[in-house]
Amino acid sequence: MFFKTKPIKSRYKYLLIVLTLVGGYLIFYFYPQEVEQFTFCPLKFTLDIPCPACGSIRATSLFLKGDLLGGFMVNPLTLLTHSALLVGCVWAMVDLFRGSDTLIPALRKKWNPYVLYALLILLLINMVWNYIKGL
C-alpha cells in the first residue's frame, strides 16, 4: 500500500464531514422552500442591522438553481463560503480514501494575522453591503 493508513476512528471523522456537507446540500436542493422558512438572524432581530451572513440561505438556493449572479448579488460571501466548503469536502474525501489525516490538523494550525484581517474586512464590507441593500 502506498499510503500510511490511519485508525478507523479517524477515518470516521472525515466520512462524517463529507456526509454532513453532501446531506446539507441535498436538503437545500430538494427542499428550498422549507429551508428558507428557517431564516433567523439574532442581530437583525435585536438591533435591526443585518449581519454578514444575512441572505446566505437565499443565495445558496439561487446558487443551487444555477443563478450564480443572483446568489452573488444577495450575499457575495456565500460564494466564498461554498468554495471553501467544496475544497474542504474534496480534501476530506482525499484524506478518507488515502487513510491520511491532514484536513483537521491544517484547520487547527495558527492562521496568518493578515489573512484574518482580510477576512474581517470582507465581513465588514459584506455587512455594509447587506445594510445598503436593506436586507
Gross geometry: globular
Helix content: over 70%
Number of domains: 1
Strand content: under 5%
- Output the radius of gyration: 18 Å
Low-pLDDT segments, ≥5 res? none
Order of helices and strands: HHHHHHHH
**Helical region count?**
8
The mean pLDDT is 81
| Largest beta-sheet details | none
Tell me the number of strands.
0
Oligomer designation: single chain
Q: What is the terminal separation in angstroms?
A: 54 Å
Determine the structural class based on helices, strands and strand pairing. mainly alpha
How would you summarize what this structure contains?
The chain is 74% helix and 0% strand. The protein has helices at 8-30, 32-36, 42-47, 56-64, 68-74, 76-98, 103-108, 113-133.
What does this entry look like structurally?
The chain has one domain (8-37, 48-133). The N and C termini lie far apart (54 Å). The radius of gyration is 18 Å and the shape is globular. The model has no long low-confidence stretch (mean pLDDT 81). The chain is an all-alpha fold. It is 74% helix and 0% strand.
Which terms summarize this structure?
135 residues, mainly alpha, globular
Q: What are the SSEs and their pairings?
A:
Layout: H1 8-30, H2 32-36, H3 42-47, H4 56-64, H5 68-74, H6 76-98, H7 103-108, H8 113-133
